[in-house]
Amino acid sequence: MEFTAKQIADFLQGEVDGNPDVTVNNFAKIEEGKPKTLTFLSNPKYTHYIYDTNADIILVNKDFKPEKKISATLIRVEDSYLALAQLLNLIEQSKPKKVGIEPMSFVSESAKIGENVYIGGFAYISDHVTIGNNSKIYPHVFIGDNVTIKDNVTLYSGVKVYPNSVIGENTIIHSGSVIGSDGFGFAPQKDGSYNKIPHMGNVVIKNNVEIGANTVIDRAVMDSTIIHEGVKLDNLIQIAHNVSVGKHTVIASQSGVSGSTKIGKKCVFGGQVGLAGHLNIGNEVKIGAQSGIAQSLEDESEIIGTPAIPIRSWYRSSVIFEKLPEMYRELAQLKKEVKKLKKQDKK
């Protein structure tokens, strides 16, 4: 499928700077642009590629000012990265959609299946499950008893959804993720053994959530573990029992959130962040990668490190870290000189 620069600009409400009739049929990174492809410039460090790329159309921000001639046609938009996302979504939505129930799947007679649903082979749909319209359940998905899946949900191959979980509209869960498994709760005994604490709650995932591959969200001991609207979780994340993740928070890969911690709205966590249990993390908190968080944080905190400290303090400290060996040698030399001076004074 081909599109002209004018058609793309009209869709994005942008402005064509160059040939409006040039056509493209694919996407490319700006440094690897080829004829008939569209690319974009968002990060300034890639600007030098715009003068040499072979891509025919480039999305740029409206305020972009070239320093020399550019052979490609530019489409000027408010936000080139967001515009690219809109185009990719348009292409994704135009792909053929699977519908129907494949013969090797199992669907309980008590399950309620909406319209235009796809259920792939070897999927297992348990008793009293509800699946909303236009949802897609790929092969080898397991859905436990009394699960509610609302409209336009996609569960990729290998997803496991434990009983009583609720998954909101337009949610995407990638392969290998587990929703509603038992939390890590054990009562220590006098003999040193541990008794398992049954988890009687569930997981509630609100609308427009995306959960990466092999992420695990444990159900609550009581009540619900809640992933609120618009949350984006990367691959390989652990969300423990009774956690609440606020609206539009994003958490990068290999992070872990311990039990009963509450995370506010619009937070951003880097990869491998670890949060202790029973914390309250405010709204719009930013946590740098590999940080260890052992105390609650106020709104709009920006921290990094283990133990975590304000990010500006960490940057100043990091300059000193690499100088520590030199400073240690200088300190040792100063100690020797002070020792000599003390001996001279005694004489």
Task: Give the SSE layout.
Blueprint: E1 3-4, H1 5-12, E2 15-17, E3 23-24, E4 26-27, E5 37-40, E6 57-61, E7 73-77, H2 80-94, E8 100-101, E9 106-107, E10 112-113, E11 118-119, E12 124-125, E13 130-131, E14 136-137, E15 142-143, E16 148-149, E17 154-155, E18 160-161, E19 166-167, E20 172-173, E21 178-181, E22 186-188, E23 194-196, E24 202-205, E25 210-211, E26 216-218, E27 224-227, E28 232-233, E29 238-239, E30 244-245, E31 250-251, E32 256-257, E33 262-263, E34 268-269, E35 274-275, E36 280-281, E37 286-287, E38 292-293, E39 302-304, E40 309-310, H3 311-321, H4 324-346
Parallel strand pairs: 4-5, 5-6, 6-7, 8-11, 9-12, 10-13, 11-14, 12-15, 13-16, 14-17, 15-18, 16-19, 17-20, 18-21, 19-24, 20-25, 21-26, 24-27, 25-28, 26-29, 27-30, 28-31, 29-32, 30-33, 31-34, 32-35, 33-36, 34-37, 35-38, 37-39
Antiparallel strand pairs: 1-3, 2-7, 22-23, 39-40
Summarize the structure.
Helix content is 16%, strand content 29%.
Characterization of the model:
There is one protein chain. The chain is an alpha/beta fold and 347 residues long. Helices cover 16% and strands 29% of the residues. The strands form 6 sheets. A 12-stranded mixed beta sheet has the order 8-11-14-17-20-25-28-31-34-37-39-40. A 10-stranded parallel beta sheet has the order 9-12-15-18-21-26-29-32-35-38, with no helix packed on it. The longest helix is centred in the last third of the chain and has 23 residues, at 324-346. The protein is flat, with a radius of gyration of 27 Å. The N and C termini lie far apart (94 Å).
Rg from C-alpha positions?
A: 27 Å
Structural class: alpha/beta
Percent of residues in helices comes to 10-25%
Number of helices: 4
Low-confidence stretches: none
> What portion of the residues fall into strands of 2 or more residues?
25-35%
Distance between the termini: 94 Å
Name the shape in a single word. Answer: flat
Could you state the oligomeric state of the chains shown?
single chain
Task: Let me know the average pLDDT.
Answer: 95
Spatial order of the strands in the main sheet?
8-11-14-17-20-25-28-31-34-37-39-40
Biggest sheet character: 12 strands, mixed
Instruction: Find the count of extended strands (DSSP E, 2+ residues).
Output: 40
